[in-house]
Amino acid sequence: MNRLALFDCDGTLVDSQASIVRAMNACFEEHGLIPPDRSATRRIVGLSLPEAMRVLVPEGEAGLHDALTASYKAAFFQHREAGLVEEPLFDGIAEALEALECAGWLLGVATGKSDRGLRFCLEHHGLHARFVTLQTADRHPSKPHPAMLQAAIAEAGATPETTVMIGDTSFDMMMAVAGGAHALGVGWGYHGPDELRAAGAQNVVDSAPALIEHLQTFQPGCRLDD
């Protein structure tokens, strides 16, 4: 059975927080609202946009959440057109993806990004062709619902037991648990190691080389912390 390494994108593959915060600030200001603190925006990275807006503006009505979502998308697109979007790969990620692929892993992405945003990001880094399955918020409920994970497993011809969900937020870890996959946290993203473990991470790695080493010892049917 195929082994699938399923990655989150923002905070796991790329460091996009500056661009996310910039777009979030712009969309809140457009609606006459005080933008959330940077820390609050970091907290919602990984959720689908409508769910993120519900978290950031819990007292708002559905119409406001929808309007903020549309404004965020427009702001992010405008910033990208103006060359203001920065989504650099984290150190060692390109090498890690190549090493895992060479070791026989199938690679996938499950992200709160849109189809368009994910494609642009991966193509910019020359990585799009490495992934056999790409799941986004355009076609699934927000994390931690396991729909993205389940669709990725089906497309890759894997099983939950042969799949490792790799992410930087509690939403990723809870999705892995809900879908029966292994949950591996990364310590360079937007939620801390303790929070990742509390959400179900069986282990947390602190570098791309450590990620490679961890997956090289992975055996289906065994926990990542065995």
Describe this structure in words.
This protein has 226 residues and is α/β, with parallel strands linked by helices. The chain contains ten helices and six strands; from the N terminus they run E-H-H-H-H-H-E-H-E-H-E-H-E-H-E-H. The protein has helices spanning 17-30, 38-44, 49-56, 62-81, 93-102, 115-124, 147-156, 170-179, 193-198, 208-216, and strands at 2-7, 106-110, 131-135, 158-167, 182-186, 203-205. Strands 3-2-1-4-5-6 form a six-stranded parallel β-sheet, with helices on both faces. Helix 3 packs across helix 4. The chain is globular and about 50 Å long.
Structural class: alpha/beta
Query: Helix amount, in percent?
Result: 40-55%
Poorly predicted regions = none
In angstroms, what is the radius of gyration? Answer: 17 Å
Q: Secondary-structure map with pairings?
A:
Blueprint: E1 2-7, H1 17-30, H2 38-44, H3 49-56, H4 62-81, H5 93-102, E2 106-110, H6 115-124, E3 131-135, H7 147-156, E4 158-167, H8 170-179, E5 182-186, H9 193-198, E6 203-205, H10 208-216
Keywords:
6 strands, globular, 10 helices, alpha/beta, single chain
Short description:
By secondary structure, this protein is an alpha/beta fold. Helix content is 46%, strand content 15%. The chain contains ten helices and six strands; from the N terminus they run E-H-H-H-H-H-E-H-E-H-E-H-E-H-E-H.
